[in-house]
Amino acid sequence: MTVHPDDEGLTWGGETDPTHVDALVEEPEAGDHPEEAVGISSPLLVTYGVFGGVFLLFVVGWIIGVQRDTLTIANPFFDFMYRLGEVLAIASPAAWFVGVLFVARDRPAWARILWLLLGVALLAPWPFILQVGRS
């Protein structure tokens, strides 16, 4: 079978082509952290997504709880510190989630999940939860 000159651009020539070079395939080295070499498993990725959604809902809960707050403080310094605490309360769930994923990335997956569970218990938007329970 002869190849038409216009069809030469559609073939690769194979091993007989003088410009053909075999590429070296390097296998990733399995170090101390096998999930880094293989990647994150699907169930672990879904678990991180669920925790991310929970912490995002916590941020929204803190925003609603802070907006419902009617406390007024006469002292400017104490008022500033109270408002700063509210801002930090709003940012804390997102900071906890990102912090656990970055700081504990060398830890096993179960340790990161335990840290995330601890964050769920500690950072729940209690002002919002208690206000919803009263109404």
Return the string of H and E elements.
HHHHH
Q: Count the DSSP helices.
A: 5
| Alpha carbon gyration radius | 28 Å
Shape descriptor = elongated
SSE class: mainly alpha
> What's the main sheet like?
none
How much strand content do the residues show? under 5%
Distance between the termini: 84 Å
Helix content: 55-70%
Which spans have pLDDT < 50 for at least 5 consecutive residues?
none
Number of DSSP-assigned strands: 0
Overall pLDDT level: 83
Describe this entry's structure for a reader.
The model has no long low-confidence stretch (mean pLDDT 83). The longest helix has 28 residues, at 76-103. The protein has helices spanning 34-38, 42-67, 76-103, 109-122, 126-134. The protein contains five helices and no strands. It has 135 residues and is mainly α. Helix 2 (42-67) runs antiparallel to helix 3 (76-103), helix 2 crosses helix 5 (126-134) and helix 3 (76-103) packs antiparallel against helix 4.
Question: Keyphrases for this structure?
Answer:
135 residues; mainly alpha
Show the helix and strand layout.
Elements: H1 34-38, H2 42-67, H3 76-103, H4 109-122, H5 126-134
Helix pairs in contact: 2-3, 2-4, 2-5, 3-4
Q: Outline of this structure?
A:
The protein is mostly helical. The chain has helices spanning 34-38, 42-67, 76-103, 109-122, 126-134. It has five helices and no strands.
